[in-house]
Design brief:
This protein has about 100 residues and is an alpha+beta fold. Helix content is about 20%, strand content about 35%. It has one domain.
């Protein structure tokens, strides 16, 4: 029975927390795709738009005990043809608020 209560009261998470200190290192026109991978690891998804530009998405979700206190972060990055960051956006409901990069 104790195992049941631990399972119900447990926390769940998916992805790695997107740290503000790492986001502040992103420089539009300078940060490369490989630097983004070093900073944030493998993205949840990646796709090419109609113009042939790569978009990568990093995602983190944390749900606290009993489903309380959900936090979610999404970092979306569009790269130019030279694999440099063209534009990015961070959506963060964990108290840091949204941040847009150009």
């Amino acid at each position: 029975m104790a195992v049941f209560y631990l399972a119900v009261a447990g926390c769940a998470s998916s992805g790695s927390k997107i740290e503000q200190s790492a986001v502040s290192q992103i420089k539009v026109g300078k940060t490369s795709k490989y630097e983004m991978l070093a900073l944030f690891g493998s993205p949840l998804s990646q796709s090419f738009g109609s113009e042939g530009k790569l978009t990568m998405l990093w995602h983190c979700v944390y749900v606290g005990p009993f489903g309380m206190g959900m936090e979610q972060q999404n970092l979306t990055v569009l790269f130019d043809q030279n694999d440099k960051v063209e534009r990015y956006s961070l959506t963060d409901n964990s108290g840091n608020g949204p941040r847009l990069g150009r």
